């Protein structure tokens, strides 16, 4: 109906470490999670995962991936 279907629709990107540190600083100033969701335009799950990463590991960088790395990327598989 007038919409073009695209096969190269990207998955949601990771939050940058700068955005994660901004989320943590706002969270530590007692701002509630729903307000953080609207401010940073991130999902509620991403906000909670960032907070839990900070509580458990005290880092804002991405954790190493588990399992064996893929040989082909998603684009190369097509």
UniProtKB/TrEMBL annotation:
This is Transposase Tc1-like domain-containing protein. It comes from Clathrospora elynae.
């Amino acid at each position: 109906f007038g919409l073009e279907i695209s096969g190269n629709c990207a998955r949601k990107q990771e939050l940058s470490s700068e955005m994660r540190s901004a989320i943590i600083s706002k969270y530590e100033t007692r701002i509630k999670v729903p307000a953080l969701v609207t401010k940073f335009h991130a999902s509620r799950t991403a906000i909670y995962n960032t907070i839990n990463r900070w509580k458990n590991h005290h880092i804002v960088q991405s954790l190493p991936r588990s399992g064996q790395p893929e040989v082909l990327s998603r684009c190369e598989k097509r």
